Amino acid sequence: MGDRARTEFDACLLALATGIVTTVVFYRFGIDNHVAELPMVLRAMDPNFLPQDFYTNASAGPGPRFRFTQLMAAIASPETLPRVYFALTLLANVAIAGISFTAARNAFAGSSLAGAGAVVLVMSLSPFRLGYAPELYVSQMLSSRLVLPFVLFALTAGLEGRLWRAVVAGGLATWIHPSFGLEGGGLAVALAALGSRRSPAGEGHWARSLAGVGAFGVLALWGLWPSLSDPGIDPAQFIAIETMFRHPQHSLLSLQPPSEGIRAVVFLAASSLALLAWIRLAPPPAPRAVRGGILLWGLSLACVLGALAFELAPEPWLALARPLRGLALVRWWGLVLIGGALGLALQRHASFDRRQRLLSLAALTAAVLGIAASRPSAGAWLCLGTSGSILLLLHGTAHRRPLARIGARVGVCTSAAILLIQLVWLPPGMPESWRNRTERLRPALSLDDHSGDDAEIARWARRHTPVDAVFLTPPDAGWFRLWAERAVVVDFKAFPFQGQAMLEWRRRLDDCFGPTRESGWRAAQELARAYAETPPESRVAGNCRHSASHALIRGDHPTSQPVLATRGRYRIIALP
Q: Is 112 exposed, middle or buried (0-12, 13-18, 19+ CB in 10 A)?
């Protein structure tokens, strides 16, 4: 195997290893946004899943996540769904790492080390969270996460002027996630249309560009059709419920933490320097440099101006666009430029050969991931120890120092053994404090991997309450629907994007928990406090009947009803 072939092989291993490590470190099944999406998927698989549940019934119709749920139902069953989700998450992370590697390598004069540098940063760092945009790696398989590899591939094609690749990838992205796919795919097609690699500027070029834009429009319309077929509601009601009340953190610039704005400005400045380094260290053709600048500066300006425009004049199309979400693409391109520039600089000045430098960045990736994971300190020290051992091994090989090589091999073997014990086997005699830390390092691959009071009370309800039971729960306990497989009157997390269902969702919140002047998660906290202050039986005696037969309460929540089960801080009661 020649030197170039070995380098390409190492690059593939880097993308694969980074995707695996990221998935294992961050992956969680059945929590957070899975609380909202998994019931939809389970209903698509089984029409009899929770027929009494308002949210599941409302979300079964046409809407923005309709095609994604149909896709999941086509490739999985309720029994295999956890494994399918984990496999798709792993594939998505490997694809994101590979796309980032290719984008940086193509930008920086074919430097594999530049690609490796981009992978290190993209798969480990979150420089800012303005607009609460999602991470660039995938920690949960959602429609908004599965779409990310397609959008990034389309952007890579757009930066290189490959129009039809951008059209196909962008069109598929709209099929998975209509709004984000339309924005990212449309941007990629527009960048590609600015200059094609195969068509010189002129009449043929513009005809090709118009054909590509038209083809993307057709694909996008196909992807948007389930959303367009929903009857919707009055625009003012939509903005009041969806944007101002439920998701203000995604659209309102005035609600962003000032620290995130400062971090975003610093990151944009660093990315701008990396863009200049790209132009100077590996001068791209003029059209590609223009497209790279538009993606970095133009998109940043468009996102901020769009958010400001929405605050000054709220419009439904701006609410659907969620302008600040586009900053995730700015983050990706900025990290690709910074990582690529650092990798190219390392290639030109380090004493290692190409293969050793690539492996050194792979070692540093593990260290960065261990720290960025915010997991227990044992995991971070494990990653640092493994990475230090690999770097020591490379140093010993480069300078022919046997002791360094022996010490490094011992360190790698020790770290691998510790990792195997943490992820696979926990000795019975292990101290409780260490057992708790190691268990938190293990990914939650299915609902059975969850433990604690909430998981125990949900399992009790699934085994001992009627299948057609309807539960009144705290507004922040939407997980109960998924874990207990029992209908819930309403919760704050599971928000139906269908028009008329939004009105019913807000009405149920007011009926069961009372009105609130807050918005976003502050509203959820206020509603939870209100629920904890009033006996559930008095609530269902009023406007909050909604066929509720049982209630989930916490701690010393007042009630006059007999308690059916207690698990830690949770209790279940039967309602009169």
A: buried
Q: Which of 548, 556, 514 is nearest to 531 (CA)?
A: 514
CA neighbor of 238 nearest in space, from 496, 488, 36, 32: 496
Spell 502-519 as b/e; 16+ CB within 10 A means b. bbebbebbebbbbebeeb
pLDDT in tens, 128-149: 777 777 778 888 899 888 999 9
Which tokens go with 157? 């094609």
* Cα(185)–Cα(173) distance, integer angstroms: 7
Given the structure tokens 């919760």, which residue do they identify?
491
Q: Do the Cβ atoms of 182 and 223 come closer than 8 Å?
A: yes
Annotate 502-566 with DSSP letters as a single string.
Answer: HHHHHHHHHHHH---S--HHHHHHHHHHHHHTS-HHHHHTTT--TT--EEEEETT----SPEEEE
Backbone angles phi, psi at 553, to 5 degrees: -130, 165
Cα–Cα distance between 58 and 64 in angstroms, integer?
13
- Structure confidence by residue, pLDDT tens digits, 60-98: 878 888 889 999 999 988 888 999 999 999 999 999 999
Which two structure tokens, joined as six digits, stand for 137? 């790696």
Angular region, 575: left φ>0, alpha ψ -120 to 50, beta rest? beta
Encoding tokens for residue 233? 């509601």
Q: pLDDT grade, residue 413 (50/70/90)? A: low
Residues 501 and 490 sit within 8 Å (Cβ to Cβ): no
Give Cα separations from 282 to 106, 114, 289, 335, 341 (angstroms): 10, 11, 11, 17, 9
Measured N-to-C along each axis, helices 178-193 and 163-176 cross at an angle, to the nearest 10 degrees, of 170
279 versus 419: the higher-pLDDT residue is 279
Helices (DSSP H) in 3-80: which residue ranges? 3-26, 34-45, 54-59, 66-75
40: nearest Cα among 181, 226, 306: 226
Long-range CB contacts for residues 349-353, cutoff 8 Å, separation at least 24: 351/398, 352/394, 352/398, 353/3
